[in-house]
Write a structure and sequence with these properties.
Number of strands: 6
Number of domains: 2
Distance between the termini: 62 Å
Largest sheet: 4 strands, antiparallel
Order of helices and strands: HHEEEEHHEE
Low-confidence stretches: 191-197
CATH topology of the largest domain: GTP Cyclohydrolase I, domain 2
Radius of gyration: 23 Å
CATH class of the largest domain: Alpha Beta
Structural class: alpha+beta
Number of helices: 4
Amino acid sequence: MEFLVTGQEKFDEALATLRALDPDQRKKAFAQIKREREEQDAKRKKELDLKPNQHWSKAHLLHRIPNPTREAYEQKVLIPEFTFLGVSNQPDFGEILLTFYPGPWTIELKSIKVYKDAYRDVEASYERLANVIFTDIMQVYEPTRLRLMMRLRPRGGIASCLTIDSDWSIRGGKEQFADWKSNVDQFGFETYGAARV
């Protein structure tokens, strides 16, 4: 009968080997392991940087429903709990505010919940994710206008907010709404105390 070595046994053996080394050799071993891990992380980050935005798309999770009216209206969708893994493979937390002017289709809100939850284990920069989410929503729902604002929780004492608006000429818009020109509120979100969101 063949003896199978468990993960714990391998760990215990490696730990015993490290303990048997003199302190200088142990430092060198840990420094080598650290270097190899940093090289692997750098290689993985470089590979992620080269991937196109479509790599992160989860548009297949979004469902649309026919717009029940052809009258103009604005729909705001707040996603107060958006979680993903940042480029350092550490959790990032934020919120997303969608300002949506429906065209022939409107948002099926349950699918937005499934969609945003699908990013929990995704490793990407928030700049990339903001663009991916914007593109997915534009392609699936074909709105007259979409404004996406992503506000991230502070990291190192600094908060950040990204905004993308389909009305901008740089995004192919006609600047027909242009309400964003006088936007002076904090990060474009209406602010509330901690008790209200």
